[in-house]
């Protein structure tokens, strides 16, 4: 899909698989616009794709996100909506997840087209540095500013593993359709099982999509 810079084009984005207009029904989603509870006839997940500005892009497109989520077992896939949002995550992350009233929303933020994430004058925290190291991003200092430099394959893995699948795992740990996951111990065990499956599955999905 060809996107034009949003400042030149008044088109905000596109919807896939659901209604093209959304009504505000749940306050929890108000700051993310509004996303209706899907009907039995919607093809999930319903995708919302913003037009990024000329300096930003979506490392995972709508079709790739759908493929990755549909690769999950049915009992692990409760995601109803995914928003590929323009602009960057307010922190160093790439995704957020919220759910309630029949809606489970994952938001994946855009990435800089030059593959350089600027952290400003403050050096990223150790937790951030460890994740960057895990995915091969190079941390450098240019003048008084810290920057993380990515390659496109590394960035896509980061978005798939730590963004999309992490949010899906968080949701799966707390909302389980058959109702048996109703204690903290059960949720912790479910999260541990999910993370193991995610590690195996994510490698396979990445190969299918990009190799």
From TrEMBL:
Extent of Basic residues compositional bias: 1-10
Region (Disordered): 1-23
Superkingdom of the organism of origin: Bacteria
Protein name: Uncharacterized protein
Species of provenance: Amylibacter marinus
């Amino acid at each position: 899909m060809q996107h034009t810079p949003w400042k030149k084009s008044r088109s905000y984005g596109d919807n896939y698989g659901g209604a093209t207009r959304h009504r505000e029904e749940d306050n929890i989603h108000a700051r993310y616009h509004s996303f209706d509870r899907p009907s039995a006839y919607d093809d999930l997940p319903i995708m919302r794709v913003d037009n990024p500005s000329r300096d930003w892009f979506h490392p995972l497109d709508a079709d790739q996100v759908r493929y990755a989520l549909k690769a999950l077992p049915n009992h692990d896939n409760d995601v109803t909506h995914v928003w590929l949002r323009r602009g960057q995550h307010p922190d160093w992350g790439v995704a957020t997840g919220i759910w309630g009233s029949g809606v489970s929303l994952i938001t994946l933020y855009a990435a800089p087209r030059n593959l350089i994430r600027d952290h400003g004058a403050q050096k990223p925290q150790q937790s951030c540095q460890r994740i960057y190291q895990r995915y091969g991003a190079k941390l450098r200092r240019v003048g008084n500013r810290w920057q993380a430099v990515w390659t496109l394959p590394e960035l896509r893995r980061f978005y798939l593993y730590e963004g999309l699948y992490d949010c899906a795992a968080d949701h799966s740990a707390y909302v389980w359709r058959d109702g048996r996951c109703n204690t903290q111990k059960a949720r912790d065990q479910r999260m541990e099982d999910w993370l193991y499956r995610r590690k195996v599955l994510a490698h396979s999905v990445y190969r299918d999509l990009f190799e």
